[in-house]
Amino acid sequence: MSKNDMKKILVTGAVGQIGSELTMILRKRYGNENVLATGRKTKPSETLLNSGPFEYIDITKRETIEKVVKDYGIDTIYNMAAILSAVGEEKPLVCWNVNINGMYNILEIAREHEMTRVFVPSSIAAFGPETPRKNTPQETVLKPKTMYGVTKVSGELLGDYYFKRFNLDVRGVRYPGIISSETLPGGGTTDYAVEIFYEAIRNKKYTCFVKRDTILPMMYMPDCIKGTINLMEADVSKLKHHSDFNLASMSFSAGELEEEIKKHVPEFKCEFKPDFRQDIADSWPQSIDDSAARKEWGWKPKYNLQTMTLDMLEKLNRRYEKGDL
Ligand code: SER
């Protein structure tokens, strides 16, 4: 493990779904002052603000990244700022600008400052309708049909290019849909798997925007963060892949998720009214072969549908009782 060579960490997108929880865990692990959280516009939570440094930057504006990198002596970046798939279809040019030009700025600054390591997430959106949908292999057809997917494939290729050409240690995983209890995702196709929990607690009903039999790969936030940090701390000599690790933990249909929630909230009612996101979901895999991640850096998820559902409902119930939902 190479934990000690990452001393000053920058997290972009730290107010987002993954960034907000990742920042807090990195602060615990590396020291509050050593993890700079950044966002573009959204106000950070008190927890984020009171536990360590926070700055506003815009990754599409190179000088704003450069300033914090110099001011804080950054040697490691987790680039969690991104436009997700559904918003990406509504605003493809914005999606390109943030996910590609923004990422390029991050990589260039990391190269110029000879940084230790950069994390750039990819997604199951890198796959497309021509990809085998079951147990999707590590090496396979990458022909996504969304702008988000196009930026993710490009990001993987760019990350691997920087590793080979400039010796910049870029790492990344293809995240499945991420389910979390702290911060809602914004503008993704897998958002229904999070919203359904909030609505089950708040209103006991939910209208799901994909069909009941839609199966997608998903992951609970604690596993997502564990995987992210484990990959970043893995011994580089063991890695054959760099920016494109398949990562999996569970797969279920929207209907199975409804049934699982009903075991704990019997009065819960779910309707299914697919919208434009159905086509996106249908172009993505149902399950993922993540044996490369398991072999090269010891990936092993903890949660399944049952344990994730129980934990989500407990956490959200607690927030609801505090008046925080
Ligand atoms: N959760 C993302 C989305 O739905 C996929 O990476 O856009």
Question: What does this protein look like?
Answer:
- The chain is α/β, with parallel strands linked by helices.
- It has two domains: 2-177 and 220-246, NAD(P)-binding Rossmann-like Domain (Rossmann fold, 3-Layer(aba) Sandwich), CATH 3.40.50; 183-218 and 250-286 and 302-321, UDP-galactose 4-epimerase, domain 1.
- The chain is 44% helix and 15% strand.
- The protein has twelve helices and 14 strands.
- The protein has helices at 17-30, 46-50, 62-72, 85-90, 92-112, 147-166, 192-202, 221-233, 254-264, 277-282, 291-297, 305-321; strands spanning 9-12, 35-39, 54-56, 76-79, 117-119, 122-123, 170-171, 173-175, 177-179, 205-208, 215-220, 245-246, 250-253, 269-272.
- The strands form four sheets. It has a six-stranded parallel beta sheet with strand order 3-2-1-4-5-7, with helices on both faces. The protein has a three-stranded parallel beta sheet with strand order 6-8-12. Strands 9-11-13 form a three-stranded mixed beta sheet.
- The termini are far apart.
- The model has no long low-confidence stretch (mean pLDDT 97).
- Residues 84-85, 123-125, 148, 175, 177, 188-190 line the site of serine (SER).
